[in-house]
Amino acid sequence: MDTICYDIGPYLLLGVMRQHMIPNCDGGIISQGLSKVLQAVQLDRLFDMATVKHFDGDVFPFPLKTGARESTDETHFGVTTKQRAVDQFVRALEGWLAKLELGISPDGRGHIGEIIGEAIDNAERHSGGTSGEGRWWMAGFMTTRYKANGAATYHCHFGLLSLGCSIADSILLAPDEIRKQVVGYTQKHKSKNLSEGTLAATYALQDGITRQPPGGVGMMSLLDMVSVLGKTDKGVKASVAIVSGDACILAREPYIQPSLELSDARTLWFNESNSESEKPSEDFVKTLPYNFPGTLVTLRFQIDPDHLKRLVRGSKRKHDNN
């Protein structure tokens, strides 16, 4: 009954769940706007859903991609599923920006590709499990929405789902030094409302915290990217939601832009002083009443062409002055 897709994550998850349901559903109601999105990103196929076809072009998709960690032989043979998905995402984002008369530099394309590649790497490395687990699914789209005064706004959505280990379960398999840091943080801040698993997932988001060092910079890089692309003073604020195990972590203003520490590590502790020694705000870090068997990362941001153009002009002036 949704009239607008505000978050692609639940639909991505429902599509995966649908593969394991008895195919005994028939009929039903869906809005034109939602069916248009599901068709565009090809989730209607995952749902095995027949909908009326739409032809007007105000949904610009990054269609559904799925894969799993590939063997060494597959990696050596040619382009991997992950590499294809990364390339296609960068091209989709480039196309979205081009419709707004914006572009991405070669360095920018490479940087965005690294961020999405790291996100898929995390899904592949940390979500392995029994049969049917360890896979990942991703999809996204940009759509044009209109204000009451007729002005167009441009909203982007993206989701990445993996099944298997949660972030908290995975980080507890890290080397002793990292595991001791995680346990120290969880023991200090655990409470009736914040479980050890939720706190472990929060700690694992920080730069350098990973089950398999070196690495562990993917989530801070993703938040950096979204906070820059989605910066606006006159629309929907950028947000990223992470559901993993019993943790639900919401990165949004004022806690979405990571801070760079003296150690060159970026952190986001979800409190006013951005301090590891203080507990995260329960408005942004929540413990769920159930455990999700994997990780769902879903993001939303509005592209504000005027802001991005001002950002580019300011960067050019700074470069010229230097």
Folded structure, characterized:
It is built from 11 helices and 7 strands. By secondary structure, it is an alpha+beta fold. The longest helix has 21 residues, at 106-126. It starts with 8 loop residues before the first helix and ends with a helix. The mean pLDDT is 87.
**Ends distance:** 54 Å
By DSSP (H or I, 4+ residues per run), the number of helices equals 11
Structural class: alpha+beta
C-alpha-based Rg, rounded: 20 Å
**What fraction of residues sit in β-strands?**
15-25%
Largest sheet, strands/sense/barrel: 5 strands, antiparallel
Helical amount: 25-40%
Widest beta sheet: strand line-up: 1-2-3-7-4
Unreliable stretches covering 5 or more consecutive residues: none
SSE pattern: HHHEHHHEEHHHHEEEEH
On the 0 to 100 scale, the average pLDDT is: 87
Quick one: overall form? globular
Number of strands: 7
Concise synopsis of the structure shown:
This protein is of the alpha+beta class and 322 residues long.
Index terms:
322 residues, alpha+beta, two-stranded antiparallel sheet, globular
Give me the secondary-structure topology.
Elements: H1 9-18, H2 32-40, H3 43-47, E1 59-67, H4 72-77, H5 81-98, H6 106-126, E2 136-146, E3 152-163, H7 167-171, H8 176-189, H9 196-204, H10 218-229, E4 239-252, E5 259-260, E6 266-267, E7 285-303, H11 305-321
Antiparallel strand pairs: 1-2, 2-3, 3-7, 4-7, 5-6
